[in-house]
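Each field is set out underneath.
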Amino acid sequence: MNSKPLTYESSKTVLQYMDPNLRILLSSRIPSIRTAEKAAPLKIEHLEIRSHIIKVNDTYYGCEVYRVDRKYKVPYPISGLTKLNSKWTCDVDEFGTRDYITKAGGLLPGNNGLRELNLFGFLDLENIPTDEGRLQKLKKRLKLETQRYNQLLIYRPKKEVIDDENDSFDFGTFKLSHCNRSDATGLFNKKALGLLKNEDMVKKAIDYMNERIKQMENELLPFENKKRNIRPKFEVHVAKQKRKVRAISPLEKVTVYPPSEGEQIDFEFLGRFKLLLFNEMFGWRPEFIHNLQNRLVICHAHAQNFLLSEDFLVLIRNWIENKKPVGTCFIFSIFDPREDFPIRVLKFVKTKYVNAPAEDNYVNIRMRNSAFLRICHEKDKDPRISIRMDVVSVERPHDLTNIKIEPIPYILY
């Protein structure tokens, strides 16, 4: 069936009422409509320009940098959020070195006395001043990860136990407390392997370790490229994603996975929820917790370093200065901490508030609104403990907010 082409005026009319995202696509594919397009107004209901993405109505656009594998010719994403250390990459140099490393004068992150995560996402407190020294430390850890991966390949549970209710929790504990442990120095011990109770869990652990090793190797590759003067091929891809947000009412509870570095979040909107469940799997962002306005918050996160840092004291001062109301409660649920960790947190707080009444399991800090800020620890379901912050009445200092801690399902990457 033959059809006549649209006239110039008809083309303008069609373009004027066309969905803007479709119009953008047509403009990039059909250059011949450019003349008519210039004469037809582009109507956009919602335009949002962020650091790394552009939103047109309900569609997001972003540019991503890929490195093309020399052997298999497969593009590998290298921009955006790095899964290992949660740092954001916008660009790379000719060898593939990430821009945040280049801006730091070429020095690798971590091992600098600043409690900064290294390239693999570990908090290694050893101060190594040279770039070569830090690189050798990373290669040593990669070798250990390969040995632990090989250990899993030959491991078989003595007894096949399938427990759908707890398998996810146990595997999450295996990842967080053993695979991702910054101070790991040897193979997995019996306690770690005992969490893998069936062949399916062992397979998941093998896949997880294999993926982490690939990520580590890709982090080290730019330094090998520079050493051998290899300049890989790079490509820029345009990513497109459509999202529709549906309002939910009433606002009772929400689970939040914090945004990556450079992205914005509406704290006023989050503050409308009665209970906020906060989960952060790949890196702790203190500024996020500082800005939360919710009365009840449960944090399932890597918060050990936060609770022993100046950032925790800043949060305490913020609560005191802003006169948080009685009933405000933040709970930090910690996976498999060292046995003395809760006591260390309380002693750390006590050294800054020497006049605060204290017992073995709590510290009370007087506030200006006839209330105490009580910081205490509780035993949760093994292997977790909780560090709590509660604003309690002076008249009833032992009345803590009753919150049931429900484990947040793990996202298995």
